[in-house]
Amino acid sequence: MSAGSAAQAPKRLTCPQLRAMKGATKIVAITAYDAVSGKLVDSIADLVLVGDSLGPNVLGYDSTIPVTLDEMIAAGRAVSRGSQRALLVGDLPFGTYQASPEDAVRSSARFIKEAGMQAVKLEGGAERAGAIAAVVDAGIPVVAHIGLLPQSVHAMGGYRVQGKTEQGARDLLDDAKAVASAGAFALVLEGIPDSVAAAITSAVDIPTIGIGAGAACDGQILVFTDVMGLNFGHLPKFVRPYANLREVAAEGLAKYRDDVRSGGFPGSAESYGG
Ligand code: KIV
Predict the structure, then answer these.
(1) Is the CB of residue 223 below 6 angstroms from any atom belonging to ligand 1?
(2) What is the band of 10 on the pLDDT scale with cuts at 50, 70, 90?
(3) How far is the CA of 8 from the centre of ligand 1 (A)?
(4) Residue 272 C-alpha to ligand 1 middle, in angstroms?
(5) Interhelix angle for 101-115 vs 69-82, to 10°?
(6) How far is the C-alpha of 144 from the C-alpha of 165, rounded, in Å?
(7) Longest Cα separation, the chain
């Protein structure tokens, strides 16, 4: 089949298009973990992250650390089947990119080939510049992620806001410049003071996407289950739940139980008769 006669692939936002949104349109980003959440967010999101927050939010792990690349790839495949237009980014899980730039390239290539992602995200600043450059060199776009790094929870001594001291803020600015120079096309800023996020946003020419980093970022990202009110644990200060699906689900499930117990379900409308 020639390129001209190939079936038209769904038109997704591209990495260069997302990058060009800096300074023009605020970027709307959110996580998704399966075909259902992928479908639900597709019409509102510019960027959908198949985040390793899959671990605590869907798989029942107590952090992102146990998540495997195979689990992320299965989730990524499901999200890409559910969505059509958003830019899809796969989150490299802990232990799949830190040891060497070669590991980073191998893991990223699996995400692109097997899960249909357009780009990958990895955590870390200047210390990950080599890995970012290698992945970009392999033709795979990278979103960097600095500030509060959930995969480094043990090193940070908990999920703590970063960059609160003058030195910490300077380090974050250096990290942002390092990952941008290494070739990242966007940068997630997590859990840092608004003023530091604002300084980083004006210092780099790639879009910053904040989560707990204030309003000056070029865009915002939140976790799907937090936005939908499906969080069963601690809700961070930076989350605004826009729906309460937990309450809606509990009400619906209680009605189902009551109807089954009372014989009210199924009725004639849900039966084949005869
Ligand atoms: O995995 C995730 O959900 C993330 C976002 C918090 C940016 O990395």
Answers:
(1) yes
(2) low
(3) 31
(4) 46
(5) 40
(6) 22
(7) 77
- Listed residue (127, 208, 197) closest to 161, CA to CA: 197
Question: Which two three-digit tokens encode residue 254?
Answer: 């209680």
> Does ligand 1 lie within 6 Å of residue 54's CB atom?
no
95 in the Ramachandran plot: left (φ > 0), alpha (ψ -120 to 50) or beta?
left
Write out pLDDT tens, residues 45-83: 999 999 999 999 999 999 999 999 999 999 999 999 999
8-state DSSP, 13: P
CA of residue 194 to ligand 1 center, whole Å: 18
Residues in the chain: 274
**Atom number, ligand 1, closest to the C-alpha of residue 209:** 7
Q: Which domains does the chain have, with CATH numbers?
A: 15-243 (3.20.20.60), 246-274 (no CATH)
